[in-house]
Amino acid sequence: MLKILASLCLISFGSLSFSAGTDSGSSSNSGNSTNSSSSNERTSKSIDVNVEFHRAKKLIYKKKYEKGLKTLKSIEEETPFGYTSADLYNYMGFASRKQKIPNYKDAENYYLKALSFDKNHIGALEYLGELYVETDRRDEALVLLNRIKLVAGDKSSEYKDLNKLLN
Description:
mainly alpha, 0% strand
Protein backbone atom coordinates (compact mmCIF):
# COMPACT_ATOMS: atom_id res chain seq x y z
CA MET A 1 0.00 0.00 0.00
CA LEU A 2 2.83 2.41 0.87
CA LYS A 3 4.52 1.76 -2.50
CA ILE A 4 1.31 2.58 -4.36
CA LEU A 5 0.86 5.80 -2.40
CA ALA A 6 4.49 6.82 -3.02
CA SER A 7 4.07 6.10 -6.76
CA LEU A 8 0.95 8.25 -6.94
CA CYS A 9 2.76 11.11 -5.21
CA LEU A 10 5.65 10.91 -7.69
CA ILE A 11 3.28 10.86 -10.66
CA SER A 12 1.40 13.91 -9.33
CA PHE A 13 4.60 15.81 -8.59
CA GLY A 14 6.04 14.97 -12.03
CA SER A 15 3.00 16.29 -13.86
CA LEU A 16 3.08 19.53 -11.86
CA SER A 17 6.74 20.17 -12.55
CA PHE A 18 6.25 19.56 -16.28
CA SER A 19 4.19 22.73 -16.67
CA ALA A 20 6.22 24.95 -14.36
CA GLY A 21 8.92 26.23 -16.74
CA THR A 22 8.86 29.71 -18.31
CA ASP A 23 11.15 31.95 -20.28
CA SER A 24 10.86 34.77 -17.81
CA GLY A 25 14.05 34.13 -15.92
CA SER A 26 12.12 34.41 -12.66
CA SER A 27 9.78 32.26 -10.66
CA SER A 28 6.88 34.66 -11.08
CA ASN A 29 3.83 33.20 -12.80
CA SER A 30 1.94 36.45 -13.37
CA GLY A 31 -0.83 36.02 -15.87
CA ASN A 32 -0.85 32.24 -15.50
CA SER A 33 -4.22 31.98 -13.77
CA THR A 34 -7.22 30.46 -15.45
CA ASN A 35 -10.91 31.16 -15.07
CA SER A 36 -12.11 27.95 -16.65
CA SER A 37 -14.96 26.20 -14.88
CA SER A 38 -13.80 22.74 -15.94
CA SER A 39 -10.27 21.45 -15.52
CA ASN A 40 -10.74 19.11 -18.52
CA GLU A 41 -11.78 22.08 -20.65
CA ARG A 42 -8.74 24.04 -19.44
CA THR A 43 -6.33 21.18 -20.08
CA SER A 44 -7.46 20.35 -23.61
CA LYS A 45 -7.53 24.02 -24.62
CA SER A 46 -4.31 24.91 -22.77
CA ILE A 47 -2.29 22.11 -24.31
CA ASP A 48 -3.08 23.49 -27.77
CA VAL A 49 -2.11 27.00 -26.65
CA ASN A 50 1.17 25.69 -25.23
CA VAL A 51 1.90 23.84 -28.47
CA GLU A 52 1.21 27.01 -30.48
CA PHE A 53 3.44 29.07 -28.20
CA HIS A 54 6.33 26.66 -28.66
CA ARG A 55 5.69 26.46 -32.41
CA ALA A 56 5.94 30.26 -32.55
CA LYS A 57 9.22 30.19 -30.59
CA LYS A 58 10.68 27.67 -33.06
CA LEU A 59 9.68 29.90 -35.98
CA ILE A 60 11.32 32.88 -34.30
CA TYR A 61 14.52 30.91 -33.59
CA LYS A 62 14.55 30.01 -37.30
CA LYS A 63 14.31 33.76 -38.07
CA LYS A 64 10.78 33.40 -39.46
CA TYR A 65 9.71 36.41 -37.43
CA GLU A 66 6.53 37.29 -39.32
CA LYS A 67 5.15 33.76 -39.06
CA GLY A 68 6.15 33.50 -35.40
CA LEU A 69 4.49 36.83 -34.61
CA LYS A 70 1.32 35.80 -36.44
CA THR A 71 1.18 32.58 -34.40
CA LEU A 72 1.69 34.47 -31.14
CA LYS A 73 -1.04 36.94 -32.05
CA SER A 74 -3.39 34.00 -32.65
CA ILE A 75 -3.06 32.96 -28.99
CA GLU A 76 -2.76 36.44 -27.46
CA GLU A 77 -6.30 36.37 -26.03
CA GLU A 78 -5.99 32.80 -24.69
CA THR A 79 -5.15 31.85 -21.12
CA PRO A 80 -1.42 31.01 -20.95
CA PHE A 81 -0.44 27.48 -19.97
CA GLY A 82 3.21 26.44 -19.71
CA TYR A 83 4.37 30.01 -20.30
CA THR A 84 3.45 33.44 -18.93
CA SER A 85 1.77 36.42 -20.53
CA ALA A 86 5.07 38.24 -20.01
CA ASP A 87 6.83 35.54 -22.07
CA LEU A 88 4.25 35.86 -24.84
CA TYR A 89 4.63 39.64 -25.13
CA ASN A 90 8.41 39.43 -24.85
CA TYR A 91 8.52 37.13 -27.89
CA MET A 92 6.04 39.34 -29.74
CA GLY A 93 8.34 42.30 -29.10
CA PHE A 94 11.40 40.37 -30.22
CA ALA A 95 9.73 39.18 -33.44
CA SER A 96 8.48 42.71 -34.19
CA ARG A 97 11.95 44.16 -33.67
CA LYS A 98 13.78 41.50 -35.70
CA GLN A 99 11.56 41.48 -38.81
CA LYS A 100 13.07 42.43 -42.15
CA ILE A 101 11.55 45.88 -41.61
CA PRO A 102 11.64 46.32 -37.82
CA ASN A 103 8.52 47.67 -36.15
CA TYR A 104 10.08 49.43 -33.18
CA LYS A 105 6.85 51.03 -32.02
CA ASP A 106 5.00 47.70 -31.74
CA ALA A 107 8.09 46.01 -30.28
CA GLU A 108 8.39 48.64 -27.55
CA ASN A 109 4.69 48.34 -26.73
CA TYR A 110 4.97 44.54 -26.49
CA TYR A 111 8.03 44.73 -24.22
CA LEU A 112 6.28 47.25 -21.99
CA LYS A 113 3.22 45.01 -21.85
CA ALA A 114 5.46 42.07 -20.88
CA LEU A 115 6.90 44.19 -18.09
CA SER A 116 3.40 45.16 -16.95
CA PHE A 117 2.83 41.44 -16.23
CA ASP A 118 6.28 40.88 -14.70
CA LYS A 119 8.30 44.00 -13.91
CA ASN A 120 11.46 41.89 -13.54
CA HIS A 121 11.14 39.83 -16.74
CA ILE A 122 14.82 39.57 -17.61
CA GLY A 123 14.28 38.90 -21.32
CA ALA A 124 11.98 41.89 -21.76
CA LEU A 125 14.35 44.15 -19.81
CA GLU A 126 17.30 43.14 -21.98
CA TYR A 127 15.44 43.29 -25.30
CA LEU A 128 13.82 46.64 -24.50
CA GLY A 129 17.32 47.89 -23.66
CA GLU A 130 18.54 46.63 -27.04
CA LEU A 131 15.64 48.42 -28.73
CA TYR A 132 16.60 51.63 -26.93
CA VAL A 133 20.18 51.26 -28.19
CA GLU A 134 18.92 50.60 -31.74
CA THR A 135 16.70 53.71 -31.59
CA ASP A 136 19.41 55.98 -30.13
CA ARG A 137 17.99 56.17 -26.60
CA ARG A 138 21.14 55.24 -24.74
CA ASP A 139 20.09 56.83 -21.43
CA GLU A 140 16.95 54.68 -21.28
CA ALA A 141 19.03 51.60 -22.11
CA LEU A 142 21.40 52.40 -19.22
CA VAL A 143 18.45 52.56 -16.81
CA LEU A 144 17.43 49.07 -17.93
CA LEU A 145 21.01 47.81 -17.64
CA ASN A 146 21.00 48.90 -13.98
CA ARG A 147 17.64 47.16 -13.42
CA ILE A 148 19.03 43.95 -14.91
CA LYS A 149 22.04 44.24 -12.60
CA LEU A 150 19.72 44.51 -9.59
CA VAL A 151 17.48 41.63 -10.67
CA ALA A 152 19.93 39.17 -12.24
CA GLY A 153 23.38 40.46 -11.37
CA ASP A 154 26.26 41.70 -13.48
CA LYS A 155 27.36 38.13 -14.22
CA SER A 156 24.10 37.29 -16.03
CA SER A 157 24.19 36.87 -19.80
CA GLU A 158 21.45 39.51 -20.17
CA TYR A 159 23.52 42.08 -18.31
CA LYS A 160 26.68 41.19 -20.22
CA ASP A 161 24.93 41.32 -23.62
CA LEU A 162 23.30 44.72 -23.05
CA ASN A 163 26.45 46.11 -21.43
CA LYS A 164 28.47 45.02 -24.48
CA LEU A 165 26.05 46.87 -26.78
CA LEU A 166 26.39 50.01 -24.70
CA ASN A 167 30.21 49.97 -24.45
